[in-house]
Structure of Class I SAM-dependent methyltransferase:
Amino acid sequence: MSLCPLCSHQADFFIQDKKRAFYLCLHCGLVFAAPSSHLLPNVERQRYGRANKAAKQKQLSQFVFPLLAQITQQQPQTHLTGLNFGRVLDENSIDEINAAGHTLNQYDPFFAANPEVLKQDYDFVCCYRVFEHFRSPQKEWRLLSQLVRPGGWLAISTPLLSNLNQFAKWHYKTNPTHVSFYQQATFEYMAAVSGFDLLFASKDFILMQKPSESDIKRNPI
């Protein structure tokens, strides 16, 4: 058994493949890789550096721009301040967002590690293919919950684990930098403990909103 890195409950051994052991938490639904199998930070950084940057940038922009358009429809004629957490969007896209009257700060632990952007709150926070890399999702979730201001939005892209019986054959778990895997129930748990409204969770897109009321829940994970 191992402690769940999200809810701190005891998790059960789930499966073992050729390289890693995985555990399943029945309390929050998280599946996670054994901490002993985590890559060293410098090795993980090298893997990021070898990634297909052009393809990743296109995917990231295709995630950010529709999200910004959707929020703008909900809050027309509003200057929005957002945070792109865990990835770095290209300068042309940032310029386009600025030209539309919005601001998008960026934080990436390897390539944009600016702690100052984590000292304010935002109208929206977006995380594209980041959650699966969280080694301490409890810590990261607490941070993200604080970064979203009341009434603000949190948009997440990570492939949802929809069938536990298929996990052993799931290609997404073969990437050694992917250490945390989420079911819809996992995001339902995170929303509940933090007082967020879970608006949508399907396939690889999750959308939450922090209530604007003064009685926002602040239950610790």
